[in-house]
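Late entry, zinc ion complex.
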Amino acid sequence: MTVDLSQVVNNEGARVRFSGEADLSGCDALNFIEPVRVSGKVSNLGGDIEIAVSAQGLARLVCDRCLDEFEKSISVEFSERLVKEDAYANVNKDGRDDAIVFSGNLIDIDEILIENFIASLPIKTLCREDCKGLCGSCGKNLNEGECGCEKPADPRFDALDNLIL
Ligand SMILES: [Zn+2]
Ligand SMILES: [Zn+2]
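Prediction complete; structure with ligand written out below:
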């Protein structure tokens, strides 16, 4: 999805809203099932361009515990500082190299959308908070019911038994 900056780039104090859909289906790291809904604004703050974005998408994720696929609505809100390409050399001298460089009056925000979506995911992806996971012996998904395997003895209790004896 590209955002038009032409009305703010050379216009200090200008602020323009935008909205649309971003097709992130080419993203390998995150499997979006439908286009991501995006809205936000671009502002010229004393010559610096700031983009503030809020986006929501539906992704197909894999549970880390039971390995089942599930769909989850995920949303992000973030803002980034944008710097025009020809001003970039000066910016780097200031040590502000975290800015995103653009050329012309359009910026493609797909990449920063994906980065922010990935950063927003928890370290552990679970289909539900109390996912029971897979049986360690037979591999059955225990969310679908018990498998009938012997429960392996918990080694912590063995240690306790030994202490008592
Ligand atoms: Zn699960
Ligand atoms: Zn089992």
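The chain is about 15% helix and 35% strand. Will revisit in the morning.
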